[in-house]
Design a protein that fits this description.
By secondary structure, this protein is an alpha/beta fold. The protein has three domains: about 220 residues, Spore Coat Polysaccharide Biosynthesis Protein SpsA, Chain A (Alpha-Beta Complex); about 70 residues; about 40 residues. The chain is built from twelve helices and ten strands. Strands 1, 2, 3, 4, 5, 6, 7, 8, 9 and 10 form a ten-stranded mixed sheet that branches. Helix 1 links the parallel strand 1 and strand 2. Helix 9 packs antiparallel against helix 10, helix 10 packs antiparallel against helix 11 and helix 10 crosses helix 12. The longest helix has about 35 residues. It is globular, with a radius of gyration of 23 Å. The termini are far apart.
Amino acid sequence: MNPEVSIIIPVYNSEAYIAQAIESVLNQTYSNFEIILVDDASTDSTIEVARSFQDKRLKIISNKQNRGVSYGRNCGIKAAKGNWIALLDSDDWYAPERLEKLLLVANQENADLVADDLNLISDRESQPWSTLLQEKEQRSSLVRLIDPVEFVISDRPNPINAKRNWSFGYTKPLMRREFLLQHGIDYDETIHVGEDYVLYLECLRHQARFALVPKAYYYYRTRVISLSTRKPTEYLSDSCAITNIFIDREIDSQNNPELLKALFENLLVYRKRLAYYLVLEAIKQKDIAKTVKQILDNPHTLGDLLSKFVNILQKRFMSIIESKKSNEINFSVASAKE
């Protein structure tokens, strides 16, 4: 009998984390699954750790050379036998009931993709510091469907001084394998950031039903060393390129004018944000001519820079005030003891 779910785990040099990831799957309350671990030519003991698990549901594919996470996921999907594809990054893990809960919703909603909220947890911590939906200030208790326009808007960067934006592209949905095969959708191996976002949006463009469960069963480790530490200019340049690709597809198809509008609006925000970081980059390089040119080409960056400067001053001022209050309290306590 074929498994109902195929869990794809692309892995590269994750010896410190992979055991927890595998254990979290083996400890699921739902047991009809297979694990396909795709090792991307690791140079540490990742493979040895993985092979220490004596479970017939665990299959290991070893790449002879490093090809990237998208290649690894595509390898896993091609080898999968399950009706559902589940994603798991090698440094993350599942709550025990995750597969059971998501499969239940998938069947109830007749979904093609079903995702849950994410527990956001810092490396070496035992408790999440927040969840994706909490960071987005969305606290609905109901399962709901995400449409392509809402999905695209969720990826729109926040203002310069705002906290990090957690888009729906960060989620790790179960995906109906037949839907992916029917529409010829797989991971784009030419991009190295936002690969999940691209695949989910392509599914939505093909009328996928994307159900979002408001409870978090996935533990997303927020590590300091990750793709998110890339230079903002690189990340934003890639975001512009990806958005332009989808704009061209929507112009050709003429299927969803609201989606096209949302994509254009995202592109405008990405370009403005990119211009701001190009100015910052020039300032850090102490290149006066380049800084002036960037500002003249993009005068709106002056307002962003001023806002950033004011924000820094406010934080420093509040820090001084808090420090002064603390010193006064300590002095009062010391005086009272005397």
